[in-house]
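PROTEIN FOLDING TASK:
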Amino acid sequence: MKLKLDEQGHAVLQDGKPVYLHDDGKEVAFDAPGTISTISRLNAEAKTHREGKEAAEKALKAFDGIEDGPAALKALQVVANLDQKKLVDAGEIEKVKGEISKAFQAQLDEANTKATGLEKQLYDEMIGGNFSRSKLIGEKLAIPADMVQARFGQNFKIEDGKPVAYDQSGNKVYSRARPGEVADFDEALESLVEQYPYRDQILKASTSNGGGAQPPGSGGNGKKSLSRTQFDALDPLGRHAHMTAGGEVTD
């Protein structure tokens, strides 16, 4: 391809564009600006293709060593989908659920056991400690603190870090000395003892009698005396208290 010249040796122009002669004699006007634009476009496309190729090669590095693409894809599908129907048919889903549930239940049981143990320790210290230190038990009751706790311990709960008593109807025991406030331990225990149907059998003689003439049911030696019917009507705590205090049972 060569530039076409006129008789004077000047380049022949067509629409302002130089004309070139191809080897086959065909004349073509050369569009220089259009050619430059096309070259720029092709360069941009080449750059885009090159960057895409580099990105693809980088992504493919993660699959180095995988030669059988279809087999690898199938394996990935199996792992990803776990073939739900087959798992259901084989009972594998329930098996997995069972293992997870078992592990969680074991952890939950362990936590509950620890919590129960700590709760018992707290109860033993706060409730049991109050029974063992009770001034009321030492001064007015004829039975030891552990027996008093065995009978009345169930009426106490720990609320807001302190023991709170409930009567047999499930109502909180409130203080008579401080109206509107919950009774402290000894005051609450005294109230529970007063409501106890066999209180005379667990109170010390001087407390239940109040001194003076011997009340009905007392022997001549000052000991409490109960008929066999009355004694049999007592609960185990009342019977024990009666016998511990030296009480008598008459037929």
Remarks:
- The two ends are 147 Å apart (CA to CA).
